[in-house]
Design brief:
143 residues, 3-stranded mixed β-sheet
């Protein structure tokens, strides 16, 4: 008699079922890790920018970045400034190398205004209160 080699159909089906069960257990954990990484990145960026806003205020007599100086928030934070906040000087800054992208929408743009965030992408800087948030309608816009 000849020796049989190979797997039977039942053996292959059992292996496929086991792999399916393992995939059903592991795949949701990867999506959770991705969500947690985005959240952690967003919180880290917010903390960094907010601390740099506070440093800017200390060095510019409590003025907010871009306020009453003819510059935008991003210009005030990424370029050198004078005490009055104009970017023609080299007394203070830069406070950030570049504006990091919002990890939820990959947009580094900063919208400025006096409303609450939640109507766009990127970041939102409130020019009256100095609040800096993610600019979308999700929960992380209020961190």
């Amino acid at each position: 008699m000849r020796a049989r080699s190979g797997f039977t159909l039942v053996e292959i089906l059992i292996v496929v079922i086991i792999l399916g069960i393992l995939a059903a257990i592991v795949i949701p954990q990867f999506s959770d890790a991705s969500t947690q990484a985005r959240e952690s990145t967003c919180r880290s960026i917010l903390q960094t920018v907010r601390s740099q806003i506070q440093l800017y205020k200390v060095q510019h007599n409590e003025a907010l970045p871009g306020a009453d100086s003819g510059t935008t928030f991003v210009e005030a934070m990424t370029e050198t400034t004078d005490i009055d906040g104009t970017t023609s000087g080299d007394e203070y800054g830069p406070y950030l190398d570049r504006m990091s992208a919002n990890p939820y929408d990959d947009d580094p743009n900063v919208t400025e205004g006096t409303a609450t965030p939640g109507s766009g992408t990127g970041w939102y800087f409130n020019t009256s209160s100095g609040a800096f948030n993610a600019n979308d309608s999700a929960e992380h816009a209020t961190w």
